[in-house]
Amino acid sequence: MTVTFENNSDKQISYGEHFLLEKKIKAKWYQVPFALDGNPAFTDIGYSLDSSGIKEWKVDWDWLYGRLDNGEYRLVKEILDFRNAGDYDKYHLTAEFTVD
After folding, report:
1. How much is the CA Rg of the chain, to the nearest whole Å?
2. In this structure, are residues 96 and 76 in contact, taking their beta carbons and an 8 Å threshold?
3. 3-class SS at 4?
4. What is the rounded CA–CA span in Å between residue 52 and residue 65?
């Protein structure tokens, strides 16, 4: 899946490789369990997105979740409004999608 980030703010934001998937069951969202044993590791990298910038981010969840059953899902992605070391706001953005 390809996610498009569009920064409509006047600030530079950053994001990394980490993500979560959630599945909607009876109108509530639940985290999809990992297919891997233990804690998964993501590449610790930061991507920046300037004000008014647009970037695409490709996500492959097969290695982490395996094949998804049919249903409604959402990708949860952490975005940082970084000002200085230790001075940032953290936001969680979601993108909903359906697997048929």
Report:
1. 15
2. no
3. strand
4. 33
Rounded Cα distance between 10 and 45, Å, is: 23
How confident is the prediction along the chain (100 residues), in pLDDT tens digits per residue? 999 999 999 989 999 999 999 999 999 999 999 998 777 888 889 899 999 999 999 999 999 999 999 999 999 999 999 888 888 899 999 999 999 9
Spans of all domains in the chain? 2-36+46-99
∠ CA 87-91-96, nearest 5°, is: 160
Parallel/antiparallel/unpaired status of strands 71-84 and 20-25: antiparallel
Q: Which CATH architecture has domain 2-36+46-99?
A: Sandwich (2.60)
Residue-level pLDDT at 98 = 97
DSSP 8-state code for residue 70: S
